[in-house]
Structure prediction request, 451 residues.
Amino acid sequence: MTRHRLTIVTLGLALAFATPASAGDESRDDDSVSREEFDELRRAHEALRREMSTLREEQPPSNMTALEAAISSLEQEVDWVTARTDAWRPGERSFVVNGFTRAGYSNPNNDNSSFSAGFFPVFVYRLDDRLLFEAELHVMAGSGGTGVELSYAHTSYIVGDALTLGAGKFLSPFGTFQERLHPAWINKLPSNPLVYAHGAGIAPEAMTGVQARGAMRLGETDGKFTYAAWVTNGPSLSDANTLAGDAAAAAGGHDAHKAPVPPEFRESLTGRLDFDDGGDSNGNKTFGTRLAYLPVPWIEIGGSYWAGDADPTGSIFEGGDFRLTGLDLVVQHRDVESIGGNLEFRAEYIESDVDNGHLPFNNRRSGGYAQVAYRPQQLDATVLNDLEFAVRHDWLKEPGGVDHLNDIDVWTVGVSYWLSTTAAVKVAVQKKDVERLGDESSVVFELAMGF
Prediction:
């Protein structure tokens, strides 16, 4: 009995006083363990129970009373250790820092060449299986200095597969680009589509408010229906005064991500929706939804709608109601033998309609993009396996009959070399046709890495 008792006590003490991190890893949270450490604790726990079972079988009946008392005491210790190891289970109360970085170089034919750099840390805290917090910072070098923005800060509560509730500042559920493709290492090309251009697009990058979203299977088929609905602060309407203020802020380095708007352009940009969410411009909230249908896992068809009042309190605009509508399509073929790799097609169309107020033109804009990407991962020529080719056509149609508001048409052709699953070097050639101003072209390089 002495040998078995010593073995049980040794295992019990090893479990009871095991620390969740190794002595050499002082930077890790004291309340978490790695998957390997958790598995080791579990194996030791199972060994302890086997020893106790063997001890019961080997002892004669005359010793059972004392033995049962000893085993009962040890079982209490085992139950305590079990509860403690369950609390250390990977995925519980975890804090993770990830994100991405990018470095770029652009060489347009009619402007100065320029390097750029950005750092985008993402902080994720998971309290339990249902409650999750996520935030991203946008740190970019600009002409006025380094600018720091809060891209999003969002808390989610998972009710079930069909419903997740969220509150805070979240990436725009309108369309598909912002939620799925905005990280530089995921975007196939080193630039965003015109409709989602940072600070100049016709669709929002993020919203502040509350949202509900989920997915539902359609019977026994592969089909799936997804939805998102939100109530948020609304955009504001730009006018000559606010644009002049933006120019002054950018020149002073207080808002380095914004390019100064030349005076001759400010009047013509009056009435454009401004999505820089610093709070609602009036007491009315906006409402939006996106519905999508996936007949098979690799095809998604979606539609988005967002509407509300963007009229700032006391402004010159009469009404100021806006409506954003959008359609999107995604087709993803992975590991297709006939083409020797992956093929992806994406397209979005967006229309922005804002009440005119006193504006002398129809305040309606529209635009979109279509993009195809191909990665030959299955070809025998291994030199091609890490390359990915992409072509995108963008367009943006401005209100007609207004000086300095010109329709834009852009073609971008690029190739990426994947250094790893989350890091790529990209090279792209871009040709832009600006109405009344002619063509401009540029070569763009980017190194992007997710971590």
About this structure: The two ends are 54 Å apart (CA to CA).
